[in-house]
Design a protein that fits this description.
This protein is mainly α and about 400 residues long. It has a domain of about 240 residues. The chain is built from 12 helices and 7 strands. A hairpin with a 4-residue loop joins strand 2 and strand 3. Helix 2 packs across helix 7.
Length: about 400
């Protein structure tokens, strides 16, 4: 049985009753008064000149912990493991850190030596709602500074960020931590600052053409794409979170299909670590079912119809329409002059343009080269891989061949 304002099929968003999105549908704000937006905690409180709490709040209203993604009118989007190193230039590959309890005496001794570094990390990567205080649980990571490069810092940052978003999406929450989310959300759509109630109908009306699907493609000369960022499973730090890139394949340049159901309860830490180390198996399972997109927001023909029954693509209540599955929009790609009928057989499809053909083969070449580079863990500065790096840069369009 569906929920008013929410999914018709409740099998996916099983906690919908607790989300702020449900309350907004009935006109209930989580904070009464003229400022219903979330407070921005930690480093974010110092960035009010360019951080927009209204826009951040509008995004958190569309986040769901079951899928680790934002639910917007044309599908799901998320903050990926690829986004983190592109923004913060920190390591993706490495082992997961397990925070441990620290005695007061031990914490004091370590903090005296590492106070500035720990504060810097907690204010940028591992943010929480403690504002100026730093949690001692991260101190053991810094006992030996020469081993810091063995940790997957990007995973630690994403675990912290997802956990903050899971909390912020609940009706009872009043504050949000996590500066990484700030940077990524603002890259999705360029809008001036407005009040939170004004943002909601604007976001309800978003179309795929309003989104920058892969904002860091021009940054690949500095940060290469790593195939491990397509890993499907659990990431862990001081908690565990499901990381499900197969739900947001368009952000990786692949055709979006109906994804499998999210995994059940998290496995043991040992199992999580084992799955992470064997990531190739899980990446292959995702990519075997898809193809490079021919235009940025491409999906299978059945994806949106499915999505509109298991999600709530809008948060504003249409008072003139009873509860039920909202009509599925028919988006027309910017690369197409006319929409193609969904039931048209492949033989009747319009011929591929030379631009679409070039884009498609570039995706195929780039994907193959990036898989090889990730597999052998190649270094751009290693002369052994000079030709591979050249071919990758040319396929990306980052280097001329003249």
């Amino acid at each position: 049985m569906g929920s008013p304002g929410g999914p018709i099929d409740m099998s996916l968003l099983t906690r919908y009753q607790d989300y702020v999105a449900r309350h907004i549908w009935f006109g209930q704000e989580r904070i009464d008064g003229p400022k219903p937006e979330l407070r921005i905690a930690s480093l974010g409180v110092k960035l009010t000149n360019w951080v927009d709490p209204q826009l951040l709040s509008a995004f958190t209203e569309r986040w769901h912990a079951e899928t680790s993604s934002f639910h917007i009118p044309f599908g799901e989007m998320t903050i990926t493991l690829d986004d983190v190193p592109c923004l913060l230039h920190i390591l993706v590959r490495g082992v997961f850190h397990t925070p441990v309890s620290v005695s007061m005496e031990g914490a004091a001794a370590l903090a005296a030596e590492l106070a500035y570094m720990l504060s810097l990390v907690e204010c940028t990567i591992l943010t929480d709602k403690t504002y100026t205080r730093v949690n001692a649980k991260w101190l053991p990571m810094f006992r030996d500074l020469f081993t810091l490069n063995r940790f997957s810092w990007a995973s630690a940052a994403l675990v912290c960020l997802y956990d903050n978003l899971n909390d912020a999406s609940m009706f009872a929450t009043r504050a949000l931590a996590g500066v990484g989310f700030t940077s990524i959300s603002l890259s999705l759509v360029g809008m001036g600052k407005m009040k939170l109630p004004t943002y909601r109908p604007i976001m309800d009306a978003l179309t795929p053409s309003d989104v920058i699907w892969r904002p860091f493609e021009g940054h690949r000369g500095s940060v290469l794409f790593d195939l491990v960022t397509c890993f499907r499973g659990y990431l862990r730090g001081w908690t565990t979170i499901p990381y499900l890139p197969q739900r947001c394949l368009r952000q990786f340049g692949f055709l979006q299909y109906i994804p499998p159901s999210p995994p059940h309860a998290a496995p043991s830490y040992d199992d999580i670590d084992s799955l992470w180390s064997g990531y190739h198996t899980y990446v292959d399972r995702i990519l075997q079912l898809t193809l490079p997109v021919t235009y940025d927001d491409e999906t299978t023909s059945d994806y949106l119809s499915w999505y509109y029954t298991v999600s709530h693509p809008r948060v504003c209540r249409p008072h003139d329409r009873p509860h039920g599955a909202p009509p599925v929009p028919q988006y027309v790609s910017a690369q197409q002059d006319d929409p193609t009928a969904e039931d048209a057989p492949p033989a009747d499809a319009p011929p591929e343009s030379s631009q679409q053909g070039e884009k498609r083969w570039r995706h195929v070449v780039v994907s193959a080269l990036e898989r090889y580079v990730a597999y052998v863990d190649a270094d751009r500065d290693d002369d052994t891989f000079e030709d591979i790096v050249l071919a990758l840069d040319v396929a990306h369009g980052d280097r001329d061949i003249d």
